[in-house]
Amino acid sequence: MARLSATLDEAVPALGAWPPHAIGALVVALIAFACAIAPVGMAVTVVALGAGPHNWCEARYLLSRMPGRWGPLRQYFVTGIGGVVALTAAYIALTWAGSNADVAWLALWHTALIGWIAVLVMLRQQQPPRRDWLWLVPPGLLCLATAWAQPVWTSVALMFLHPLLALAFLDRELSIRRTPWHGAYRATLLLVPILIVGIWAINRQPAIGNGQPVAPANTIAGRVGTIGRAGPAGPADGGWDAATLAGVPGTGPAVLATHVFLESLHYIAWIVAIPLATGAVPWRLRRVPLAARSVQWRRLVTLVLAAGLGLVVTLWIAFAIDYELTRQIYFTLAIAHVLVEVPFLIRLL
Questions:
Q1: I need a labelling partner for 142 at 20 to 30 A (CA). Which of 2, 170, 215, 293 fits?
Q2: Among candidates 25, 275, 250, which has minimal Cα distance to 170?
Q3: pTM for this model (two decimals)
Q4: Three-state secondary structure call for residue 226
Q5: Beta pairing partners, 213
Q6: Per-residue confidence (pLDDT) for residue 205, from 0 to 100
């Protein structure tokens, strides 16, 4: 992997008429176009192929960022891991309750999430290099108020914001390890909002009669409420994913396409870009501090990663057998990987 990264460092500038930012823009634009014209097909393909591998690559990366001995960081990591376990269990319980769960429980879950993040921020401020993040208090209070005023829409916002965390991890790695790529990467990111506007323009639907969009059964709008859901099933109304917005006139296909586009970038960041940026060979554990502690720890880390590969294969088989059921189960359990990114990202800042 390190040799491949070095080769890319030499090859990218040699492309002449195709500078790095142009290559990145072309790739991202092609993904956006595919999501815009075939959102259901892209949703099925992207989730089925990328869900498992991106979780494995993410786990491998996060293991390499966890110190072998926590020492003064013990309180931070115990708080982080404890919060992930507790919030995941609560989320699964609310999902199991489905439409029978009072929306207030969803607001309480978001309150616990915000409180957990606030504690992590306070603990991080005490660690070197010290940070002054007092300015985060007003946005935190605003998020708290929003969580109680509109808990379901707060969940939808979380669904769309989560894919951006991988882009933040990638930005951090490029700024440290691949500085020649960093400027091109940020230039490419500027294109993302423009492409999202284009996705909505392509998927805009005319309203007729009572204001409802034209949605023949054989179109994406007619199917978005079933196979088109691209996010986790939620506790408030049986699903706070892309399908939550399908009832808003003309928005169903655009919402689905936007989420699939962001998830595609999320998967590519974890599976391709971050491993290239870090130069890490997944099966070599020399850069995993926990594996360096002892032979027993190295065997444990190896076993965990091997079991993860087994789960990836199992997930592919399950998707092939029953895509919809597997997708619902996966996106319910995947809240754990959404949450686990938070303490690691705060720690890197």
A1: 170
A2: 275
A3: 0.81
A4: coil
A5: 207
A6: 60
